[in-house]
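User: ok so my PI wants both of these folded by tonight, can you help

Assistant: No problem, let's get them done. Here's the first:
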Amino acid sequence: MSASLSASAVAGGFRNPVFDAQTAFRRIMDAFARPGTIADLGNFVEAPPALPPAAAALVATLADADVAVFLDAPGTGDAAAWIAFQTGAAIAAAPADAVFVVLAPASDPAGWGRFPIGTDSYPDRSATLLLPVEALEGGAPLRLSGPGIESSEVVAPRGLPDGFLASRAANATLFPRGHDLVLVAGARLLALPRTTSVKEA
């Protein structure tokens, strides 16, 4: 996938690159450290419409020239150009090359296996999946447990695809390999690391 330079690519980055990136980084890391915590990434960046604000902020914060981002939805040329200009990251042409994956809304979990899951020796070589959902509240309750959660945490994201729970259960069996998953809705995100158990509440 090529990412041509355009006006939309050069606009919408961090207005205060050092302060904004540091603030976004702390919020993202806290969301991963305490699964079930919703991080608000506010209006740090303004990306093309194909890239949800929270996904754009995460990619702008964590991606660089050493990683590749895969956009798993049609009509993402402007988003690809924005990512390439704002972060220096490559736009992956193949799923197997991805470090970050911006999934399409309602993406079928059956297809997530094409993205890297790492190896037993190098589990960090897996892809982090960013899944757009309708909202992070108002859906069927899910109970989270695992590292970073004192006993359990209940969340209720709305708009999860069919097969989501089965996919997370299968992902857990791969440990230390597997995908970390981030749910994004507007400018907010909720991290579900591979170590987090996700079950019906």
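One down. Here's the second:
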Amino acid sequence: MDNPPDFMAQWDYRDPAASALRFNTLLPEARTTDLQYELELLTQIARTHSLQRQFAEAHQLLDDIELRLTEATPRARLRVLLERGRTFNSAGDKASAKTQFEQAWQLGLKHKELYLAIDAAHMIAIAAPLEEQSRWNQLAMELAERSQDKQVRGWLATLYNNQGWTLFELGRFDEARISQQKCLTWHEQHNNQAKAFIARWSLARLSRAQGQHEQAHAELTQLKDDIAAAAAPEDGYVFEELGENALVLSDPAAAEYFARAWFLLSQDGWLRANGAERLARLKQLAKL
């Protein structure tokens, strides 16, 4: 197939079912012209199953793809390993996931598929124990930073953010700040305002972790004002952080911040399902 459509551009990770429909519209032509493209496309349909927690369906489709792999389809083989690993990881089997990702990392390096090799390394960091995560993030960042390929370098913001949070969890706050500042700089240079707002929130969270509550409050207040000026939706996490710092500073506005945070975050379906205690605490601190 000459200049086949970029199937990765069809992704909406928040709506895997709709993504699957778009992938399926590409299949008929792919089946008649390009085996590797077809198999890669099918791995993404498997991923839509995984994201919907349809793990048996994802594994079955990956099994079917695996039977059709050849020496001429190394990239499809690499994607099978990645999606198999993601399926295991989503199901909570991190050990099996890590094995798949490590194989994908080695295969990606062997075939110089650096974009997918970095994907594998960043997934190893997600599946690995905390003490191993920083090393894998670092390997992925170094590979991306050395590359002149725009697509490969496009991983950097994600990697800087992931490394920042790994270092945060390790209590290495100064190093975490360096990573999150790199993430912010990347998004500012690429005019991604929404992602830049998130990076600024991450830096303010680090300020709180380091006991710099007045600085964090100032950073968050400015961020809240900049979000409003950009006519972007209010962010409940910003109000939550404002509340946490105000609480330590004995600022009477703390309850108001928590109330706004609770109102916004209680509308988040994922948080309602996975963060009931967090929401209950916000409501209590808001004195609602």
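The chain has 16 helices and no strands. Residues 16-33 form the longest helix (18 residues). Good luck tonight!
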